[in-house]
Write a structure and sequence with these properties.
By secondary structure, this protein is α/β, with parallel strands linked by helices. It has helices at about 15-25, 45-55, 65-70, 80-90, 95-100, 130-140, 155, and strands at about 5, 30-35, 60, 110, 115, 140-145, 150, 165, 175, 180, 190-200, 210-215. A hairpin with a 2-residue loop joins β9 (about 175) and β10. The termini are far apart. The structure holds manganese (II) ion. Manganese (II) ion binds next to loops.
Amino acid sequence: MRRIVIYGDIHGCLDEWRKLRQKIGVNANDCEISVGDLFSKGPKPLETLRYARNEGVITIVGNHEEKYLEIASAEKYGESIESRSYMEFFNRLNANDLAYLFSSPRFLKIANLTIVHAGLTNSTRLDRLSDDQRSMLTRLRYVGAGAMDYRFWSELYNGNQGFVVYGHTPCDIRKNRHALGIDTGCVYGYKLSAAIFDRRCERFDADAAKIEQVEAKERYV
Ligand SMILES: [Mn+2]
């Protein structure tokens, strides 16, 4: 069976990721995609980045990947401690690592399946993203449903950009009618999850997904 295998936020947890891939039994016929935040925060950032690259895994740009893209394009580099630690890691990246980062998409669409890092709103149009919508893809969590009423975006999302698989907000597997959240907080000591679909699926939704998980070896942050 040819499968689409989508991983939640890996955050440098390479041991858990290898174990999860082994459990799934990934092979050359599978299309593997990470929802982003592939390597920051956790124990083995550079090894994880290079492992993804060598194994042909596509990474969607997460807010952490975005930091490195920003540094690379020298747009928003400040003097904060956070920026310094990003800068130190950035200096360890070689040309192949950078090429991998620069070639990473902000979203992927396969039939009605849409993969983004964080989320989108009902006014997002993936084929003509405004700057705001573009930055939401990597960081959206809550949206205003009315005065003083904020709801998690996937509860309000009407499916107009497809069935969305996403990460970014650690939680249990989060199922909504038109979205599936798979960041289960491995780097915080919980689990690493993958959503697996048959590539011939005609209509992607939460029922069509098989979830596989492994426990984190430890709490890393
Ligand atoms: Mn994130």
